[in-house]
Amino acid sequence: GGAKGNGPTLASAAGSLLETWPTSASSLSSDGYKDLYVYQLDHPTRVLEWTSGKTICVAGFGPDRNEILELHLPPKLFADENKGLCAERDFKVVHGGFSDGPVHRLRHIQGTRCVVTNNGRSSSLQVWDVGDDESDVFRRTSSIEGAAPLAGQAAGERGSQVAAGPSPQPCVLHGALLGHVQLSQLASGDTCYTLETDSSEPLSALQFVSPWVFLACCRNGNLFAVDTRSPSLPPPTPVPPPPEASTDPVHWGMHATAGADVAGCRVARLSSGAEVVVSDLRNPGGPARRALLEVPADGSAGDHLRVSWAPALEDCLAVSGFDGGVQVFSVSTWGPEAREQRALFQHRGHSVLPSERSAPVRTTAHAWHPDRPRTLLSAATDGSVHVWDWVHPGAAQD
Amino acid sequence: RENFCSSITAEPAMIDVGRSCILVSIGGKNIMLDCGMHMGFNDDRRFPDFSYITQNGRLTEFLDCVIISHFHLDHCGALPYMSEMVGYDGPIYMTHPTKAICPILLEDFRKITVDKKGETNFFTSQMIKDCMKKVVPLNLHQTVQVDEELEIKAYYAGHVLGAAMVQIKVGSESVVYTGDYNMTPDRHLGAAWIDKCRPDLLISESTYATTIRDSKRCRERDFLKKVHETVERGGKVLIPVFALGRAQELCILLETFWERMNLKAPIYFSTGMTEKANHYYKLFITWTNQKIRKTFVQRNMFEFKHIKPFDRSYADNPGPMVVFATPGMLHAGQSLQIFKKWAGNEKNMVIMPGYCVQGTIGHKILNGQRKLELEGRSTVEKFFYLKSLYLEVKLQVEYMSFSAHADAKGIMQLIRMAEPRNMLLVHGEAVKMEFLKGKIEQEFNCYMPANGETTTVTTNPNVPVDISLNLLKREMSLGGTLPDPKKPRTMHGTLIMKENSLRLVSPEQAMKELGLSEHHLRFTCRVQLQDPHSDADTLHRIYMHLKSVLKGYTTQHLPDSMSVMVESIVVKVSSSTEDPNTKVLLLSWSYQDEDLGSFLSTLLKKGLPSVLC
């Protein structure tokens, strides 16, 4: 086979396209994707934060000077009726800025054009004005100081978790340890709330779930639902003991479903051992849904582990950071025993595509689109960023 | 050579998003870079406004040369207008492939504008021919002497067949203009390349500087998916193409895909495409033998297993098929014929792989028009035979962009290659380029003029001067810090300019060489003092006074000559003949001690202090 007269390099170049992902399926029509876009940033990012329905922020985490970019997603992705007539598949850098250190966390504050970053080494936050139509440059407007680190606090645990505060007043919830959680006003930097506890538990996630209630998840898996109106720290919801006795220490991350109703809020906690516990805030200590994910979990996941609920799809979770992929799971079939569960869909692009790096590629972040049900973004250690719209297996592809 | 503080002026007066035409003044020479047509306008605004130049004289006198980077109409579309309608008889430089392809595109464009749209103020076919007679073709990396002082050199730019980046040099100053370029190779073109030529100014296009490009893999996947879906449902796919460029890439892609998937539907390419393509690829291949990755070396581009030459009767065959047909914008010829036959069936598809000029059917369907008025049908036909006035467009229309431009990463790569002293970004919207400017400024100086603005870049030309060894040794013996390349040190010497050489030597050597004798300058001054002492005592008092004031100097008391000396300054005391209490001090000093001498004369005029230790 093969075309006669074509030099070997050209035909094999075309052939290699077809032999690798995603067209390893027998037909292009059912390669699993409705839309697929693959980009290469100059430097990898570990943040993917929406600043609007069409724009997202990424930032470098190298040791010195890094770029922060606000990217506009390709117009073709959104051109639903006239998709064929839109040829624009590129990201557009709408705003850019320079950070003096790595950016480990980046949060957009709803209702403003501000983002808050943390460098993962200290508890201070940088506040940035993303920029408007007149200028395409991010400007650092101020800093918000966090609590000083404790004597024994490990270097890797000094960076603050950051969460957007409840509207209307623009504020930000942050802290590296449970005892250091505070809510600061964006404009003035003044503290309007502190969590009353001496606990020196390192945090892995913070998230507001209603105007008064926020969740704090510690690295050991303890989950606290804190009401800012009452002063004391409520009792924690610990994670259930692991199904098998395991000597490897695990750490946990968390994500909760968004929504105005705290009672209907579900929380998913993911461990570095690939276990997931889904709890209901109505009955936090009650029977949870559990699963052992079928992902490579060799303990080397580090702090790239991410779990997030699909905002526009029922019962769906995405998980990333175990390898070079993003796995989507449906929790509706999960029960209270931690059984092995297979992914509904696996995005393998980051590890399968040829990369300049020799080290294995690992996903660093993923983000669901706020209202397009199956659209996700994912980023990896080789600087790649993918935008993909996956097809539910078994469903007819549009 | 006369200008040691010179400047380069770049005037993108005629630049706009959608058209390139830059005027550069360097070392007294004026060069026009590109001469593009604005594709969005239908009136005179589509041409650059040359009155800026012509108000002061004719273009031929003013311009030393015109350089065209590549055959896209937004870079060469106004060339015949400029050379034949405004008037320019000087040389026009472009690469061989550009020279071969330019007239075809210009003629095509002329036909659409004049024949289809009925415009009048436009260049004619003869004007295109006359314009091309003024073209001097360029080879890659070959220095061309435009005149005694001006030289130009072309570099490979990627982007399209024959596209070049150009270095313009006058004496020790140079400018590099990129035109459109691309830093990532694709299947039939390599990536742009330039050596570390360190131009004083690098002028780069930056339209795509703020984009991050989707991978080729995903674009190709989209293309293959669309073709496959159409063929699977029994539909026909029409791909209107220009004879060169994307057509070959897409053919190769489809061929491999068909082989892999074992597909049976026929693929055709229209007649005329092969001869043209082969002819131009022969040019292309000699051109790409230099410094380009060899993606392929072909004898016959079209020996495919699954792709066959088209015959017009096949268009009526039932069942699925794919056809590549010219011309690319569906404005005439075979592609339009096929389109008319297939447009009415929604199972079919047309894939437009590039930009379509306003007025063409390609442009209309890409703007969503689903009903097209058919030309060339007489009113009689329409009336009597009730032939449809319109063509209903029911087939699926897909617009896909395969063109290659440099993005922000590409621009940074080019800058690192060439190492320019200054950078000029053009073609973008000035307001939104602050971030990129900041990024580049971390490493380089960056200028961004607005449309119509003149930019002056001051260059610091290097003036090489030989310095004598004796002078160096003398400087070293003066002590002080060791010479440091980062910290310039002031030194004294004499500059001799003889013929074309410049030398720095010690003054003594200079005088010796030039047969000059050294002159010494001495100043004298008389100061009168009232002092009721003997001359010797007055002298001693002066000595003590100066010794206490001039702490850093060695003051000498010379009673035998009735004088006090410090450096080269001599103060001689004598009394006035009329009055022994009136002392006359004669001060003299040499030119070197001018400052000290005048200080002392002022000091002594004030008189001597009464109490001296």
TrEMBL record, chain A:
InterPro entries: WD40/YVTN_repeat-like_dom_sf, WD40_repeat_dom_sf, WD40_rpt, Wdr73. GO terms for cellular component: cytosol; spindle pole. Keywords: WD repeat. It comes from Gadus morhua. PANTHER family: WD REPEAT-CONTAINING PROTEIN 73. WD repeats lie at residues 367-389. This is WD repeat domain 73. GO terms for biological process: cytoplasmic microtubule organization.
From TrEMBL, chain B:
Coiled coil: none annotated. Signal peptide: none annotated. Residues 247-365 form the Beta-Casp domain. SUPFAM superfamilies: Metallo-hydrolase/oxidoreductase. Its main location: cytoplasm. GO terms for biological process: regulation of RNA splicing; snRNA processing. GO terms for cellular component: cytoplasm; nucleus. The keyword Protease does not apply. Pfam families: Beta-Casp, IntS11_C, Lactamase_B_6, RMMBL. Residues 18-235 form the Metallo-beta-lactamase domain. It comes from the Eukaryota. It is found in: Cytoplasm; Nucleus. Keywords: Cytoplasm, Hydrolase, Metal-binding, Nucleus, Zinc. GO terms for molecular function: hydrolase activity; metal ion binding; RNA endonuclease activity. Its cofactor is Zn(2+). PANTHER family: CLEAVAGE AND POLYADENYLATION SPECIFICITY FACTOR FAMILY MEMBER, INTEGRATOR COMPLEX SUBUNIT 11. Belongs to the metallo-beta-lactamase superfamily. RNA-metabolizing metallo-beta-lactamase-like family. INTS11 subfamily. This is Integrator complex subunit 11.
